[in-house]
Design a protein that fits this description.
It contains nine helices and 14 strands. The chain is an alpha/beta fold and about 325 residues long. α3 packs parallel to α5 and α5 crosses α8. The chain is globular, with a radius of gyration of 20 Å. The model has no long low-confidence stretch (mean pLDDT about 95).
Amino acid sequence: MSFAQNIQNAWNKQAKWLIVLRPLSWIYYSGFQLNKKLFDCGLREVYTAPVPVMIIGNITVGGSGKTPLLIHLVKYLQARQIRVGVISRGYGGRGPFPALVSLNDVPEKVGDEPCLIVQSTDVPMVVGSNRQESIELLLKHTELDLIISDDGLQHWALARQIEWIVYDRNRGLGNQKLLPEGYLREPVERLNQATVIEHAEQPETDLNMHLMVARPYLLNPAFDQSEIFDEDQDYYAVVGIGFPQRFYSTLADLGVKRFQCHEFPDHYDYEIDDLQFEDLNPIITTEKDAVKLLPLLKKNPDFNREIWVVPVEAVLSEACYTVLEQQLTELGIQIS
């Protein structure tokens, strides 16, 4: 098991030995505060885009439901004639950056989440670590009313007009310690400075979301796509996301009772050997993983194990739309 997986497991279990990392957390916090103050006092330049920027992020390391939320918001705005574009760091992609993301791009080049976002919405999107360059390239190719930044909450070099933080109540905030003793990127108080969207099945706030699960579909192009998903089958749950326990809960909600967990680091670059097991029982996985697995299947046409993909869609409370409309109206963007 890799170091990343070990420390992820320790965070999830709130292992007591994490206290030995506290000096590193102090260093992280000091560096974080110094960096932010340099931007606040003008010693480091902040880029303000010519169109409003909305950041969707979190204060934790690992999955929170941010990507399904972003996809849903893009579709919602597109349906209301808002010209929206997306930027992302393109984590896991090799570039060159900045790069426009097309429907035919592969995760190896632009990252897994950008591929999923564009394949789901066909939204104009650019990836790259330099957000200013990404925005400039995006605006060079299309006129926009709003730019949504996929993550970048802690990227103080980019001015933003709206901040939405996704708070996964199921996972919580762990031991509420900063990296690396805990999995917080910023102190808990940061939640008081932005619009917080609570991700929970039984929310405690008006601004909330949950993930609705649709019927799984077969990823393998060569297989009979009319085949019916069998929840009583034995599965290999292959997953490389920040918080795999959420996927296991999703499987339980689907009625899948028998599956072996095979976890990989977030944004993992799969190889075909990762999908080989002693028998031919099918694999079940997430849409984020599927965008990386599909190119492998195309390169290995003799692979004969079924791979089922579980699609999810964010469902937002009415209060979320009300707040979004108010925020956009203040920026001169009218939702029709």
